């Protein structure tokens, strides 16, 4: 298993992974389709490069990823990370890949002196089992405000 950051050099493999994920579990994806040209443009767009993606590669094929970004509070200097996405292809689940992706992410957090990370987690049975295996975490039901802006 090799872990690497998403770059222009591996974006085609990443897109192939997304196509498989979209085909297997479209209900778990946040998009309706894979926008290959948009993804290629975003990989080098400074706005999106603030988010990092660590990819898990096995036998040359991307099989999972974790995407996240760091941010901080100006007032108290607290440094946080938000996990945007964690996903492993079905055929590769229950092999420790998601745990290894989180470990790689946590290593990056430590390197960047992050105080805390969080995510909005899925609540299906498989996800619940996965998150309950974490040590030293709180699984909370947090109120959420969401507003979509139309520009």
Task: Summarize the structure in words.
The chain has about 150 residues and is of the alpha+beta class. The chain contains 4 helices and 5 strands. It has a 5-stranded mixed β-sheet with strand order 1-2-3-4-5, with helices on both faces. It is globular, with a radius of gyration of 16 Å.
Summarize the structure in short:
The protein is an alpha+beta fold and 151 residues long. 30% of the residues lie in helices and 25% in strands.
Q: Note the quaternary state here.
A: single chain
Calculate the terminal CA-CA distance, rounded to whole Å: 42 Å
Helical content stands at 25-40%
The low-confidence parts are none
- Compressed to H and E, one letter per element, the order equals EHHEEEHEH
How many individual helices? Answer: 4
Q: Return the average pLDDT rounded to an integer.
A: 91
Strand content: 25-35%
Largest sheet: 5 strands, mixed
Given helix and strand content, the structural type is alpha+beta
Number of strands: 5
Describe the strand arrangement of the main beta sheet, using strand numbers.
1-2-3-4-5
Radius of gyration over alpha carbons?
16 Å
The global form is globular
């Amino acid at each position: 298993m090799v872990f690497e950051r998403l770059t222009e050099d591996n974006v085609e493999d990443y897109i192939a992974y997304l196509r498989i994920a979209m085909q297997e579990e479209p209900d778990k994806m946040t998009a309706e389709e894979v926008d290959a040209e948009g993804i290629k443009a975003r990989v080098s767009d400074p706005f999106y490069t603030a988010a990092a993606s660590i990819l898990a590669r096995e036998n040359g094929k991307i099989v999972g990823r974790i995407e996240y970004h760091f941010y901080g509070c100006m007032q108290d200097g607290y440094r946080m990370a938000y996990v945007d996405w964690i996903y492993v292809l079905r055929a590769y689940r229950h092999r420790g890949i998601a745990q290894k992706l989180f470990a790689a992410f946590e290593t990056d957090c430590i390197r960047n002196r992050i105080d805390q990370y969080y995510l909005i987690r899925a609540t299906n049975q498989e996800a619940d089992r996965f998150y309950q295996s974490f040590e030293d975490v709180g699984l909370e039901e947090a109120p959420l405000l969401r507003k979509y802006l139309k520009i």
